[in-house]
UniProtKB/TrEMBL annotation:
Composition skew (Polar residues), residue ranges: 117-126
UniProt cross-references to InterPro entries, sorted A to Z: BacA/B
Region described as Disordered: 117-143
Annotated source species: Acetivibrio mesophilus
Protein name in UniProt: Polymer-forming cytoskeletal protein
Length: 143
């Protein structure tokens, strides 16, 4: 009605990583994923990603929209919106079309905003091999 971008229904998920679950390895899906547990690997989704407040993702995320309430140690590429809710902890670089950061959220890294016309071209993005801020700190502490 007001030309506002519609986000997918946050109550309908194709994939759910439960609070007591740990996934070791990368995950790729066409749909929407909700993470309430732990993922040690990259997440590549054509739909949206929802990271619950007790969730922990150690890897890069590429998705249409990303909503974070928990902790992410890795880079995030959102072709649409990245929403960091008040309990979010983001440690890594982000490439987004739109960024919403609630009061209380934590973000350590670099942010690059992409215009809507470039949102379909991920070649201008952050390399999935880029290190997160925490990994860069670990490397500098080793030296």
């Amino acid at each position: 009605m007001f030309n506002k971008k519609e986000s997918s229904n946050p109550d309908v998920f194709d994939t759910l990583i439960g609070i007591n679950s740990t996934l070791e390895g990368n995950i790729e899906t066409e749909g929407t994923i909700r993470v309430d547990g732990k993922i040690n690997g990259d997440v590549k989704v054509k739909g949206d990603v929802y990271i619950g407040k007790d969730a922990n993702v150690n890897g890069n995320i590429v998705a249409n929209n990303v909503h974070v309430s928990g902790r992410v140690n890795g880079n995030i590429e959102a072709k649409g919106i990245l929403r960091a809710l008040s309990t979010a902890q983001l440690y890594g670089d982000i490439l987004v079309q739109s960024l919403i950061s609630d009061e209380g959220s934590i973000f350590e890294g670099n942010c690059k905003m992409i215009p809507a016309s470039n949102s379909q071209n991920s070649d201008n993005g952050i390399s999935s091999k880029s290190k997160s801020v925490k990994d860069k700190e670990k490397d500098s502490n080793k030296a």
